[in-house]
Design goal:
Residues 307-441 form the GGDEF domain. Residues 450-512 form the EAL domain. This protein has 512 residues and is an alpha+beta fold. The protein has four domains: 8-125; 162-269, PAS domain (Beta-Lactamase), CATH 3.30.450; 281-439, 2-Layer Sandwich (Alpha-Beta Plaits); 453-506, no CATH class. The chain has 17 helices and 15 strands. It has helices spanning 8-23, 33-52, 58-70, 76-94, 100-142, 148-161, 180-186, 190-193, 210-218, 266-280, 290-303, 319-326, 328-345, 370-384, 414-430, 441-463, 500-503; strands at 165-170, 175-178, 224-232, 238-249, 255-264, 308-317, 351-357, 360-367, 389-391, 394-396, 399-408, 436-438, 466-474, 481-492, 496-498. The protein has a five-stranded antiparallel β-sheet, with helices on both faces. A five-stranded mixed β-sheet has the order 7-8-6-11-12, sandwiched between helices. It has a three-stranded antiparallel β-sheet with strand order 13-14-15. A hairpin with a 6-residue loop joins strand 13 (466-474) and strand 14. Helix 1 packs antiparallel against helix 4.
Length: 512
C-alpha cells in the first residue's frame, strides 16, 4: 500500500534526497546519485526511528556513522555536511508533533554519537591502510635483488597515491622523502623541507611521552608507536594528526630508517569540539547547560582538602505569565537578557553561571571563603534583576526567588546539593518571592517528608490505610451532645497515625 501524500514515508524520502544532494559530490562511489540515495534511505529511516524512540540508543546512532564510512563517504567534508543536514532537517521532517525542545536535544545527541561512530570507523579503516602501507614498506626491504625493481615500483605507487601523509627520515631525524599528501597537509614544498629534521616539529601540546617514544624507536628499542600529535603550519594554523611511526631495519636487522604515516584529523577535532560545545551549552542563552554544570559541580565536590562551595539557585517569579501574555519569543528575549545580567555577576575566578532549563538558573562559586562570597554573589544577582527589562517597548519588572547552599566539599553529592538548593528556592517563593533564603537541613528534611507523603497518597488509598474517627460536638451551654464530626486519619506504615493537618494540605488536588 502506498504511503499517503506528504505522509511520514514521503517526508523521510525528502530528507534522504536533501542528504544525498549534499553528500554525493564529496563521495567516492561508482553509484549514480539515485542509487546512492537508495543507499542512504535505510540510514535516514534508522535516524528517524532513533529520534522518536522512547530511550536514546547511542550504539545505533554510532552504527549509522560507521555505515557512512562503509559507503565510502570519507572526504573531510562528508561528515560536516551530514551533520548539517541532520541538524537542519531531521526534526523538521521526522519529528512529527513531538516536543520540539526534546526532539532537538535528541537530534544533537544523535549527531554526537554519529560523529563518534564515524570517527571510530574511519580510524579503523585508516589504521588498516597504515598497517598495509607499513607492511608493504617492510616487505620492500627484504625482497631479493631480482624482485627489487618490482617491489620498489609497488611501494612507489602506494607512497605517491596514498591519501594519508607518508614521510621517511634517517635515524638522526633528517627528512629524506615525503609524499604529496603530506606536503598538502603541511602547506609545504619539497624545497622547503631540505635540511629539516623531525626534531624541528615540536609543539606545546605534545603529549609527555611523544619524544620519549621517538628516542626509544631510533635507538632500536621499539618497533613502532602511535599517538595524536599537533604540528604548526607555516600559515600559523595547527595541523592535528593521528601519527604512526615505524622503524625500518636493514637485511641484518640493524635500524636504518623511520617511516611516519599521518592522518589529518584537524576537521574532525574541530567538529568534536563544536559538538562538545553544543552538548554542554544552552542554545538560547549560550550559558553552560545542566550537563556542564553537573560536571563542574561534581569536580568541585570531589576536590576536598578544605575546598568549599557556594551555590545560588534562581527561579524567575511569574515567568509563565510573561510567556502567556506576550508570547514565547518575548519570553526568550527576556531569558537572554537575564542570562547576560547573571553572567556579569559571576566574573571572579572559580565562579560560573548556568541555565538548567526553563526559567531556572544556577550560579556557583568556589574557594576557601564561600560563606562570605556566596552571600555577595546572591546580592549581586538580586540587584541585577532590579532594573526593568525592555521588551517590545514594554518595561518588564523581573522578580526572582533564590535558594542558597554553602558548605564544605566532599560531604554531599551534586544531586543532593541541587535538591537542597531547589527546596530552599521554593521556600523563598512560598514566602512571597523576590527574596533569597539560606538552606536549612531541618527545613529540607520537612520538605522531603511532605513530598514523600504527597507521592504516597494514591498508594495509601489503594491499600486502605485511611480510617474515620468521630469527634462529638458538645453544646457549651448545657453540655449536651448535639452531633459528631467525622475526621479522616491515615495509618501510615512509618509515621503512625497522621491527622488531616499532616496530609490534606499536601494532597495533589489541594494547593499549598
Amino acid at each position: 500500500m502506498n504511503a499517503e501524500p506528504d505522509g511520514p514515508e514521503d517526508r523521510l524520502r525528502r530528507l534522504t534526497t536533501i542528504w544525498s544532494r549534499a553528500l554525493y559530490p564529496v563521495t567516492s562511489t561508482s553509484l549514480t546519485r539515485a542509487e546512492f540515495e537508495g543507499q542512504l534511505l535505510p540510514l535516514a529511516r534508522r535516524l528517524s526511528e532513533l529520534l522518536r524512540a522512547r530511550s536514546f540508543d547511542a550504539d545505533a546512532a554510532k552504527a549509522v556513522g560507521a555505515a557512512l564510512v562503509e559507503a565510502h563517504c570519507t572526504d573531510p567534508e562528508a561528515l560536516a555536511r551530514t551533520l548539517d543536514c541532520v541538524d537542519a532537517y531531521l526534526v523538521l521532517y521526522c519529528g512529527g508533533d513531538g516536543p520540539q525542545d526534546e526532539l532537538r536535544m535528541r537530534s544533537s545527541r544523535l549527531q554526537h554519537a554519529m560523529a563518534a561512530g564515524y570517527a571510530h570507523a574511519l580510524r579503523r579503516r585508516t589504521l588498516a591502510e597504515q598497517e598495509a602501507i607499513a607492511q608493504a614498506a617492510l616487505r620492500a626491504q627484504g625482497v631479493v635483488a631480482q624482485a627489487l625493481h618490482a617491489s620498489e615500483a609497488r611501494f612507489r605507487a602506494v607512497f605517491e597515491g596514498a591519501a594519508i601523509g607518508i614521510g621517511i627520515a634517517d635515524l638522526d631525524g633528517h627528512i629524506l622523502q615525503v609524499n604529496e599528501a603530506l606536503l598538502r597537509m603541511f602547506g609545504l614544498t619539497q624545497q622547503s623541507l631540505r635540511g629539516r629534521r623531525v626534531q624541528d616539529w615540536t609543539h606545546p601540546d605534545d603529549a609527555p611521552q611523544t619524544w620519549r617514544l621517538y628516542d626509544e624507536l631510533v635507538r632500536g628499542d621499539r618497533e613502532h608507536y602511535h599517538l595524536e600529535k599537533a604540528f604548526n603550519r607555516p600559515d600559523g594554523t595547527v595541523l592535528w594528526t593521528n601519527l604512526t611511526v615505524s622503524l625500518l631495519r636493514d637485511a641484518d636487522g640493524r635500524p636504518q630508517y623511520q617511516l611516519a604515516l599521518m592522518e589529518d584529523t584537524t576537521e574532525r577535532r574541530l567538529l568534536n569540539l563544536r559538538l562538545r560545545y553544543e552538548a554542554t551549552h544552552d542554545a538560547l542563552t549560550g550559558l553552560p547547560n545542566r550537563t556542564l554544570f553537573f560536571e563542574r559541580l561534581e569536580k568541585v565536590l570531589a576536590s576536598g582538602d578544605g575546598q568549599r562551595f557556594g551555590l545560588c539557585y534562581l527561579d524567575l517569579d511569574g515567568f509563565k505569565t510573561i510567556n502567556d501574555s506576550l508570547g514565547h519569543a518575548a519570553g526568550d528575549r527576556l531569558l537572554v537578557e537575564v542570562a547576560d545580567r547573571l553572567q556579569s555577576c559571576a566574573t571572579a575566578p572559580g565562579e560560573m553561571v548556568a541555565r538548567l532549563g526553563g526559567d531556572e538558573f544556577v550560579a556557583l562559586t568556589t574557594g576557601p571563603g564561600t560563606d562570605r562570597t556566596v552571600d555577595e554573589l546572591a546580592e549581586r544577582i538580586m540587584n541585577a534583576l532590579v532594573t526593568p527589562i525592555s521588551i517590545d517597548g514594554r518595561d518588564l519588572l523581573v522578580r526572582g526567588s533564590l535558594g542558597i547552599v554553602e558548605g564544605p566539599a566532599g560531604e554531599r553529592t551534586a544531586a543532593e546539593v541541587l535538591r537542597s538548593a531547589d527546596i530552599t528556592m521554593y521556600r523563598a517563593k512560598s514566602a512571597g518571592g523576590n527574596r533569597s533564603e539560606l538552606a536549612d537541613p531541618e527545613a529540607d528534611a520537612r520538605a522531603i517528608t511532605r513530598h514523600g507523603l504527597t507521592t504516597a497518597l494514591p498508594t495509601a488509598l489503594e491499600r486502605g490505610e485511611f480510617f474515620i474517627e468521630y469527634q462529638p460536638l458538645v453544646h457549651l451551654g448545657d453540655g449536651s451532645v448535639r452531633g459528631a464530626e467525622a475526621l479522616v486519619r491515615w495509618l501510615h506504615p512509618q509515621h503512625g497515625v497522621l491527622g488531616p493537618d499532616r496530609f490534606i494540605p499536601r494532597s495533589p488536588s489541594t494547593p499549598d
